Amino acid sequence: MCGELRASDAGKQVVLMGWVNRRRDHGDLIFLDLRDRSGITQVVVDKSRSGEALEKAEAARPEYVIAAIGEVRAREAGLENPNMPTGDIEVVVSELLLLSDAKTPPFSPAEDAIQNEELRLQYRYVDLRRPEMQKNFVVRHKVTQAIRAQLSGEGFLEIETPVLTRSTPEGARDYLVPSRVHAGHFYALPQSPQIFKQILMVSGFDRYFQVARCFRDEDLRADRQPEFTQIDLEVSFPTQDMIFGITERFVKAAFEAAGETINTPFLRMTYDEAINKYGIDKPDMRLPAMANLTDVLTPELRETLKIEAALPVYGFVIPGVGELSGTARKSLLSEIRTFFGDSGLDALDLVRLRTAEQFVPLAEEIGSHLNATTVAFNGNNFTADDLAVVITPKLGTPEMWNFDRQWIPKRVGALRLELAKKFADKHQLFEKKGTPDDYKFLWVTDFPMYEFNEEKKTWDAAHHPFTAPHEDDIKSGALYNDKGAVRALAYDVVLNGLELGSGSIRIHRKDVQSEIFRSLGMSDEEARERFGFFLEALEYGTPPHGGIALGIDRIVMLLAGANSLREVIAFPKTAKAIDLMVDAPSLPTEMQMRELHLKTTVRS
After folding, report:
1. DSSP state of 361
2. In sequence order, what E strands does 227-309 have?
3. Distance CA 496, CA 494 (A)
4. Which end of the chain is more exposed for a tag (fewer CB within 10 A), N or C?
5. What are phi and psi of 51, to 5 degrees?
6. pLDDT tens figures, 178-232
């Protein structure tokens, strides 16, 4: 392989095959950099050694595929290339074969960066030759193999589930596949193997996993693709702690395979705690938490600041921002007010707390509470270099608030992240430092069982309808009388503000599953029509079970240092779900439409 040769190989006869990365012509002496996925070796074609080889080297151009036969020799002193692993040697050619010529590509794989992503995707076979891209897929391979080995070692069986199945509620639109044999009927591509892995538990396969292909027809972004891969597992007779332990071990193995170390066990936090402290259900633990200052403000302080009684107040700290000038402070306050728009939220000019005499009491009160968050974060009180922000509803608009305990912290949490990104170069909390603390993992637990659909005025499953509710919320009657208070035995694993995966303890009793379907507005007849096979399976001795699924694409994206899933998926789609290389989706032929008993109302 082109990247394997070293000084110790000097004198060996070798055959190298690959692509011409670069070509340098010195007349009777031509240098070819020969590349394969292992690296690059400099090949020397000397007319005095072989005139025929030189003629072929003169014809060779970048991206030609060639075979070079010759002897490894050490480079002369001073001519070594310390930037190449093979920089101490070169191969002197005795014979050269042109295996395949090449058109001039739209961009060179030798380039470090190609800005036009659409061009890269259109010529993906050229883009994938780039060392940066090949490195990403080496990482992906190692990560997947490590996960497989870890789970197999813990007694899991890898079992494949169908890709052509039926539509089930999973939270996104299904991709439908028309049946030729059954006119008017459609298969659905699975959004996840959810029902099948539960049926595997009914079938006695107590530990299942799968590197599963999943499909979701939803709006795309940098960390979302219509088809993706997840590591999917299910366990019989589990506790939540058991699933957490299994997950932490295979995640640790995956990171070690990529040369990274992480801390285990992961931190844990309930959904309510995450919202109230961070304003989001996937907190970035590299930043200090928010502080709820509502009860800190005495009536006198509220009067001073013109904050009406009982209105909620939140504050947070962005470390290391440094002293802001008056102009920068005014600009920042303007940005914050633009961020909130007409939501009724506003920011206090807390910079004045350090100078304006009438605000000193508030500075002391708020300061002690903001200190509590920063001390817990890094053991230090916040200082003049840290940016403190306090958000409160605007004066005179209390009628806007229904005192939803989550709406306000969610908005403030979004601002916290926005400012953290704005000042990232100052606090440097997002920069990689080469330690396990680069990766702040977190379990978020006890998610709401239901979420209210304002448009339809109905309660929808917040996770999926096979998630078990807390036993206490069944016993208390909340499941039937107060859906907004019902907690699910659902959990997410979060890393640096990115959701890596989610899972839950499942419903294993038919009566509870039927009740959940009814609570979602599904009649018994509709439930039997859509899930009769599953409800029947629950009647044949179903063990308690639960599982989780983590996105392999997202894990590899983080480990590879990529900024998009498209960098770690071999043949991805664009943000408009188009494969530019094969030009998909495409129009079917008239014959295909007839065979599938289909007609379209739109043709283009």
Report:
1. H
2. 227-236, 267-270, 291-292
3. 7
4. C
5. -65, -35
6. 999 999 999 999 999 999 999 999 999 999 999 999 999 987 776 689 999 999 9
Which residues are within 8 A (CB) of 388 and not within 5 positions of it... i.e. 6 or more apart?
A: 315, 316, 317, 350, 353, 366, 367, 370, 382
Strand pairing class (65-74; 157-158): unpaired
C-alpha closest to that of 569 among 258, 247, 222, 257: 222
Element (H, E) at 315: strand 314-318
Spatial contact of 305 and 395, defined as CB atoms under 8 Å apart: no
Give the DSSP letter of residue 295.
Answer: T
Contacts of 533 (CB under 8 A, 6+ apart): none
Closest CA to 584 of 164, 227, 126: 227
Burial class (CB in 10 A: 0-12, 13-18, 19+), 273: middle
Instruction: List C-alpha distances in Å: 114 to 106, 111, 515.
Output: 10, 7, 55
Q: For 404, how many CA atoms within 13 A lie in the half-sphere containing its CB? A: 13
Residue type (1 letter), 595: E
Query: What strands, in cross-sheet order, belong to the sheet with 387-393?
Result: 291-292, 314-318, 387-393, 345-347
Q: And the tokens for 139?
A: 């990482």
Phi then psi dihedrals of residue 483, to 5 deg: -60, -30
Tell me if 261 sits within 8 A of 559, measured CB to CB.
no
The tokens for 417 are: 């992240």
* Structural Rg of the chain based on CA atoms: 30
* Alpha-carbon span 276 to 274, nearest angstrom: 6
Classify the phi-psi angles of 528: left when phi > 0, otherwise alpha if psi is within -120 to 50, otherwise beta.
alpha
The number of helices, as runs of H, and strands, as runs of E, in the chain is: 18, 21
Q: Cα separation of 564 and 556, whole Å?
A: 10
CB 490 within 8 A of CB 450: no
Measured distance CA(586)–CA(568) in Å, rounded: 25
- Confidence label for 368 from pLDDT (cuts 50, 70 and 90): low
Rounded to 10 deg, the angle between the 524-537 and 194-202 helix axes is: 50
Q: What does the pLDDT look like over 143-172, one tens digit per residue?
A: 999 999 999 999 999 999 999 998 876 668
Cα 10 from chain centre: 45
Phi, psi torsion values for 182, nearest 5 degrees: -115, 90
Q: Residue 54 corresponds to which tokens in the numbers above?
A: 């030189």
Q: Is the pTM of this model over 0.85?
A: yes
Q: Which run of H or E residues covers position 546?
A: strand 545-551
Write out pLDDT tens, residues 15-62.
999 999 999 999 999 999 999 999 999 999 999 999 999 999 999 999
Query: How many whole angstroms separate alpha carbon 275 and alpha carbon 408?
Result: 10
Contact between residue 464 and residue 171 where contact means Cβ atoms under 8 Å apart = yes
Q: How many CB atoms lie within 10 A of CB 486?
A: 22
Exposure of 20 by Cβ count < 10 A (0-12 exposed, 13-18 middle, 19+ buried)? buried
Tell me the backbone φ, ψ of residue 64, rounded to 5 degrees.
-65, 145
